[in-house]
Amino acid sequence: MSVPSKMKAIGFTQSLAIAEQDSLVEFETNLPELKEHDLLVKVSATSINPADAKIRIRSAQDKTLEQPKVLGYDAVGEVVGKGTDVEGFELGDRVYYAGDVTRMGANAEYQAVDYRITAKAPTSLSDEAAAVMPLATLTAWEALFDRLRVRSEEKKSILIIGGAGGVGSITIQLASQLTNLTVIATASRPETEKWVRDMGADHVVNHRNLVESVREQGIQHVDYIFNVADTKGHWESMVELIAPQGMISSIVEFDGGIDLSALQGKSAGFVWELMFTRSLFNTDDIQKQQDILFQAANLIDAGRIKSTLTTTLNGFSVETLKDAHQRIESSSSIGKTAIKY
After folding, report:
1. What is the DSSP letter of 142?
2. Interatomic CA distance for residues 327 and 132, integer angstroms
């Protein structure tokens, strides 16, 4: 297919409330220049993540950016160009990826992305159903197997705080399908409780009285905790619930401090998970993200993992993206929202 020299993109130059007129703006720009490891992708669908809202709110609070910052950290699209050192992809391939937070995101007609963090999209899913998967899947997989270092054969337990969101939903599925862990997930409404059970949770507990709720299930301590909701707010409960020699991981940063020494008596550990670390630092194992996405696509196409898509918004426009941001900022959504271009 012929590729134009210009494209439409949507971004922001100031950190404004999403309801304000210029919180997101449409503009025309040149297509991204390809590096040696890059694919050029014609984007067909993206999804909204908490990262989009956080970056929009924090990146330009006291300044105006010279160039609009383009968000979008999930995408599905067609390969229409590639760099000199790309391996394993051809023009016309349908791919999915989360991308690199330091580069232009998927809220554009075309995007350049490193092939080493990209994989061919699941063939059994529509563009919008596939677009909600990469960031959450990479985060969940890395948390389980790279950060917590769960071994698939061990018969232990994991508590997932924030079970009904995008990352929580995938973590429940991966833990249920790929490990022997007893999976405990938080949910506080009937609809979210049903959702996490459908994802594969063995037990559902209420985050509003977390310690009591877990122990009402006959569980005194848990071997692993993955917090995707509120690290500081649940810290004391996590310290109480984590088993001796257990491990806690979180994706939620916070202001101020926590009492890390509270874990000392149990010889328990705490580790961060940030899906963008490998691309931020161009780590030696950066291509592991391609491998994770490849394995996830196979699990999806085999029917073992299902898309967490719950809402599809149609059309690549400022209005549609604003709608998506409002949904993610409400903190009450179940599953994921996709935008089909």
Report:
1. I
2. 14
- What pTM was estimated for this model as a whole? 0.96
Amino acid at 148: L
User: Contact at 8 Å (CB) between 45 and 130?
Assistant: yes
| Cβ-contact 24, 325 below 8 angstroms | yes
What's the sign of the alpha-carbon dihedral 284, 115, 296, 51? positive
Cα–Cα distance measured from residue 113 to residue 116, given in angstroms and rounded to the nearest whole number: 9
Q: What is the pLDDT of residues 164-197, one digit of tens each?
A: 999 999 999 999 999 999 999 999 899 999 999 9
What is the token pair recorded at 168? Answer: 């929580």
For 78-112, how does the pLDDT look when each residue is reduced to its tens digit (9 = 90+)? 999 999 999 999 999 999 999 999 999 999 999 99
- Vertex 36: Cα angle to 31 and 40 (nearest 5): 35
* Backbone CA torsion sign across 205, 210, 215, 220: positive
Rg (the chain; Cα; Å): 20
First-to-final CA distance of the chain: 18
* pLDDT-derived band at 279, boundaries 50, 70, 90: very high
